[in-house]
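[recover] target loaded
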């Protein structure tokens, strides 16, 4: 196994358990505390079918990530895969979609969710000054942990993952005895339109695993670690989501509408009283904090990889001489989250996130197809998904169906965002050409 520095100056220190933990942490976040109600209100007791379909769809996408991720082990995840297949322009678009459209806005929203949750118990967190101080302390702590080394970042993620799973396990274990089986019965299947809208929401629940691939340059023995890590991590996530939905649906049933903002807390209150609800609230805060911590560990690698390719300022590609981490990229990314979180302006752009993630998935699936027959040095032991390219085509069909399910407003907003990204790329390219012209003449 590779444990020394890579050609990028980073250390390969992440094994199967560490990679699986990042997948669980990046996937199971604040959404699980509200999602069961959203799914049940839209599909009733048949909501379990939405989880099944979304789970199958995500498996096809994860298999594509696994194949291309074990073939290309450089830092950058989705960005580096698409760039390897389609060139710098496509890579630049995916990098921006991921780091800003999915990363910065999502983590900024999560920071506000932490403050809102705390404000429910401690009203002082409703004030903008205290919220800003909270963001500074939390983001600063997470940035420091990740600057000190990917190993420390992974260890933090592992601890948070255990803490966030314990109350969810308790909900399942103690909630089963409170299930009313009549609440799990459905008389008819939901319509295709309703199913599409629900699965589109569920993409948020299963989304996040792709962030773990951003640290691919620090994964030991990618051909072995990535397939095993994603199988372990994704398997645990899927089982948890299914069990949580069954228990919450079975306990609350038709009363979901009364607890749509915090259904798990309602179940905890039903099982253990007010103390249970408070514990679940604390778990939601820790879970969200863990998500942001995992994001600060993984997504700055996109800035690092982009800087090395000339897409971002060159200093972002620097590696810390002692800790061997992209420290300036980590600080920059944490600072962007802080700025957007305190401004609150991210709420108007949050509508782009689901479409953004689907476009990233589509780019990686297409990259998997193109790179399937391209020889890459060192990919002799890479993973190849079964069934040839059938799984990749199934993933594309599912993504296309969900994109069609977007509202007109979401489609227009996404197109505007893409146009802006393309404009940035053209401006940067023109600046590079202009800057290099005097040197060529000389």
């Amino acid at each position: 196994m590779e444990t020394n520095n890579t050609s990028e100056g980073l250390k390969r220190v992440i094994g199967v358990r560490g990679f699986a933990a990042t997948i669980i942490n990046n996937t199971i976040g604040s959404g699980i505390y509200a999602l069961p109600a959203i799914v049940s209100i839209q599909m009733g007791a048949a909501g379990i079918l939405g989880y099944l379909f979304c789970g199958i769809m995500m498996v096809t996408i994860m298999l594509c990530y696994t194949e291309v991720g074990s073939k290309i082990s450089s830092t950058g995840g989705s960005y580096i895969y698409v760039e390897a297949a389609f060139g710098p322009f496509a890579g630049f678009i995916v990098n921006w979609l991921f780091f800003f459209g999915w990363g910065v806005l999502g983590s900024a929203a999560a920071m506000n969710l932490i403050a809102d949750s705390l404000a429910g118990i401690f009203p002082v967190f409703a004030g903008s000054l205290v919220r800003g101080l909270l963001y500074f302390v939390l983001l600063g702590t997470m940035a420091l942990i990740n600057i000190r080394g990917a190993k420390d970042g992974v260890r933090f993620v592992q601890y948070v993952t255990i803490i966030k799973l314990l109350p969810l396990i308790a909900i399942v274990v103690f909630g089963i005895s409170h299930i009313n089986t009549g609440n799990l019965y459905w008389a008819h299947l939901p319509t295709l339109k309703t199913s599409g809208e629900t699965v589109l929401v569920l993409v948020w629940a299963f989304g996040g695993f792709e962030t773990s691939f951003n640290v691919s340059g620090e994964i030991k023995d990618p051909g072995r670690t990535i397939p095993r890590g994603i199988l372990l991590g994704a398997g645990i996530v899927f089982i948890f989501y299914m069990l949580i939905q069954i228990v919450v649906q079975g306990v609350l049933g038709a009363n979901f509408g009364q607890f749509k903002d915090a259904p798990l807390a309602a179940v905890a209150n039903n099982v253990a009283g007010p103390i249970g609800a408070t514990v679940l609230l604390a778990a939601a805060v820790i879970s969200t904090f863990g998500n942001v911590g995992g994001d600060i560990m993984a997504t700055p690698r996109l800035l690092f990889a982009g800087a090395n390719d000339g897409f971002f300022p060159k200093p972002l590609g620097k590696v810390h001489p002692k800790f061997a981490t992209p420290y300036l990229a980590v600080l920059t990314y944490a600072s962007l989250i802080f700025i957007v979180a305190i401004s609150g302006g991210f709420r108007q752009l949050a509508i782009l996130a689901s479409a953004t993630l689907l476009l990233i998935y589509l780019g990686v699936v297409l990259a998997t197809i193109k790179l399937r027959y391209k020889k890459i040095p060192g990919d002799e032991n890479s993973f190849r998904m079964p069934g040839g390219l059938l799984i990749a085509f199934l993933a594309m069909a599912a993504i296309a169906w969900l994109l069609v399910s977007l509202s007109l407003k979401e489609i227009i907003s996404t197109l505007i965002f893409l146009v802006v990204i393309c404009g940035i790329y053209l401006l940067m390219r023109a600046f590079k050409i202009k800057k290099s012209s005097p040197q060529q003449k000389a």
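[recover] notes: The chain has one domain: 16-432.
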